[in-house]
């Protein structure tokens, strides 16, 4: 960008800064429960809006699909206030699916030369029109656990159609994926789920007999000839930390970082995790390193870093005994590492000869240029200093 434009924008910002007032406002509550459409339904909502400036005027505004069906009383106040928002739905049905009314508050600045409308906030009110016929939606979740623990699941099923239904939910657990071994089945009693109603189940599953590993959970809801399913993976952890990766190439003549990548296999925090690395050469200890101590979150993967001093080492193969310590347990790995001489600067001599060649070519050009003009000068002098096309003038009698 042009420097003059940048300077102009800077001075413009400084000039208008005293006239800009930053503000912040809040709204309570942050959300409302879902409303199912009924023709002519009228419902009221109490909303509190507040500003960080007690003297600032605030105005209520509406946005969204249902803004033409909403009103507020009062619609404005100073600093903070409570407004009653009334939503009056039409007698004729809206389109099937969700419709939203956004209720917001905005600071109305402008007095005293300030720039207005700087801070605003809004909250949604959702209205749902049921779909014609049979229509279900579900939400399923299941918790990671540790070996010997029971997991719990959450299953939400909503009848968003116009027909009443009888649903039969089932939870199944498999090893690894849907093609793995079926290890647990929980069948719930059939439930009559009326239109515009929801079913919620939060229960434990006896998984205490399962081994550590990855599992696949399938929630299926049958309703007549139709069914709806949702699946996800969950883990059963054991108290262990895996050494996933490590540095194995180092340079001689310098101190190198020695990085270990570790991963927690436990579904709880593990505190005070650190690593000790002992480097040996034919059974003789060359160096010992200890990394700083950290805390690992559940299933977290991180790097531990020590420092390997290869200043006086030669190029060769060494053994590194890596031990990761945590909660009275140790994870171990014996690995080979290698030290190599630092790489030579690439193309140093090539660059040198390139510059030399360019210099020689330049010098040859200068010499050729000088020789050319010397030849031109000598040619000129041999001709008596005459230029082409010059003629002797005859003396007048």
User: What structural class should be given to the helix and strand makeup?
Assistant: mainly beta
- In CATH's first tier, which class of the largest domain applies? Mainly Beta
Q: Mean pLDDT, rounded to whole units?
A: 86
Total count of domains? 3
Tell me which CATH architecture of the largest domain applies here: Sandwich
Overall, the morphology is: extended
Question: CATH-wise, what's the superfamily of the largest domain?
Answer: Immunoglobulins
Query: What proportion of the residues is helical, as a percent range?
Result: 10-25%
Radius of gyration over alpha carbons?
Answer: 40 Å
Q: pLDDT below 50 for ≥5 consecutive residues: which ranges?
A: 3-22, 112-117, 388-397
Percentage of residues in DSSP E strands: over 45%
Task: Tell me the total number of β-strands.
Answer: 27
Task: Describe the model.
The protein has helices at 3-16, 348-382, and strands spanning 25-28, 35-36, 42-51, 57-64, 70-73, 76-78, 80-88, 97-107, 120-129, 136-142, 145-146, 151-159, 165-175, 182-187, 191-193, 198-205, 213-223, 226-237, 241-246, 249-251, 255-264, 270-281, 284-290, 294-296, 301-309, 316-326, 329-340. It is mainly beta and 397 residues long. The chain has three domains: 16-129, Sandwich (Immunoglobulin-like), CATH 2.60.40; 136-237, Immunoglobulins (Immunoglobulin-like), CATH 2.60.40.10; 241-340, Immunoglobulin-like (Sandwich), CATH 2.60.40. The longest helix is centred in the last third of the chain and has 35 residues, at 348-382. The protein is extended, with a radius of gyration of 40 Å.
């Amino acid at each position: 960008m042009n420097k003059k434009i940048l300077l102009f924008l800077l001075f413009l910002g400084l000039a208008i800064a005293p006239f800009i007032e930053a503000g912040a406002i809040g709204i309570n509550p942050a959300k409302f429960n879902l409303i199912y459409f009924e023709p002519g339904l009228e419902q009221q909502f109490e909303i509190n809006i507040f500003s960080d400036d007690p003297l600032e005027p605030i105005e209520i505004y509406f946005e969204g699909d249902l803004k033409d069906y909403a009103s507020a009383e009062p619609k404005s106040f100073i600093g903070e206030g409570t407004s009653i928002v009334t939503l009056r739905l039409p007698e004729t049905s809206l389109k099937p699916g969700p419709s939203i009314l956004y209720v917001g508050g905005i600071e109305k600045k402008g007095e005293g030369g300030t720039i207005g409308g700087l801070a605003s906030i809004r909250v949604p009110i959702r209205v749902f029109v049921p779909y014609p016929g049979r229509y279900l939606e579900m939400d399923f979740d299941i918790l990671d656990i540790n070996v010997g623990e029971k997991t719990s699941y959450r299953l939400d099923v909503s009848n968003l159609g116009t027909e009443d239904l009888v649903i039969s939910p089932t939870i199944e657990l498999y090893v690894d994926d849907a093609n793995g071994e079926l290890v647990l089945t929980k069948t719930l009693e059939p439930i009559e789920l009326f239109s515009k109603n929801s079913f919620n189940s939060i229960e434990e599953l006896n998984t205490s007999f399962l081994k550590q590993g990855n599992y696949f959970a399938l929630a299926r809801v049958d309703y007549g000839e139709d069914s709806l399913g949702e699946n996800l993976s969950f883990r059963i952890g054991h108290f262990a930390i895996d050494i996933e990766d490590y540095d194995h190439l180092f340079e001689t003549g310098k101190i190198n970082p020695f990085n270990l990548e570790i991963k927690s296999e436990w579904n709880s925090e593990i505190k005070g995790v650190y690593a000790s690395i002992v480097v040996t050469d034919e059974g003789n200890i060359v160096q010992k390193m200890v990394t700083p101590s950290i805390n690992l979150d559940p299933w977290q993967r991180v790097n531990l870093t020590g420092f390997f001093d290869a200043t006086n080492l030669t190029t060769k193969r060494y053994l590194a005994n890596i031990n990761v310590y945590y909660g009275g347990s140790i994870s171990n790995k014996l690995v080979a590492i290698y030290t190599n001489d630092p790489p030579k600067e690439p193309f140093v001599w090539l660059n040198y000869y390139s510059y030399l060649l360019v210099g020689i070519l330049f010098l040859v050009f200068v010499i050729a240029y000088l020789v050319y003009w010397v030849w031109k000068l000598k040619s000129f002098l041999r001709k008596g200093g005459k230029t082409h096309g010059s003629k002797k003038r005859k003396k007048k009698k």
